[in-house]
Automatic annotation (TrEMBL):
One family name in Pfam for this protein: Peptidase_A8
Listed name of the protein: Signal peptidase II
Residue ranges crossing the lipid bilayer per the database entry: 60-80, 129-151
Naturally occurring in which organism (per UniProt): [Clostridium] hylemonae DSM 15053
Superkingdom field: Bacteria
Keywords on record: Aspartyl protease, Cell membrane, Hydrolase, Membrane, Protease, Transmembrane, Transmembrane helix
Lineage: Bacteria, Bacillati, Bacillota, Clostridia, Lachnospirales
Amino acid sequence: MIILSAGIAALLFGVDLLLKQYVEENMDCGEEKEAVKGKVILRKVYNKGFMLHALERYPWLVRGSAAFLGAVLFIYDVLLSGKKGRRVEKAGTAIFSAGAYSNIFDRLVRGKVIDYIGFKSKNDFLSRLTVNLADLCIVAGLAVMTLGKLLTGAGPRSKGA
């Protein structure tokens, strides 16, 4: 399970970095291209802060926090990988970690995260949101991790779980 989880994380991490690099090299900032029948918009947006550009005026805080949280996540990943069972939680953690590490990489290496997926919506707020595959992995990973925790807590606990 450790190799499978690491493989999933590496694949998602790599795909997101490749997509970010493609957008960086082939689109202008703010440029938009319609995709998926006009419902999905490819657009290049830089985010120097956290979600919704939070704390972007404090790049030192964003970078430092990202590095610290990345180290904590790595320790959690290592500790979880040593536990028996918990397959759903481990899968969710692999997906979450791939997204988190990709955005942390961007913050530490580029000084900003490249977002590139937007959605057409009648709601102005939703239409302005731009995310990347890493963000989607973080949300999906958290959902799977939560499901794994609930499933682990729902049944009888064994000494090896």
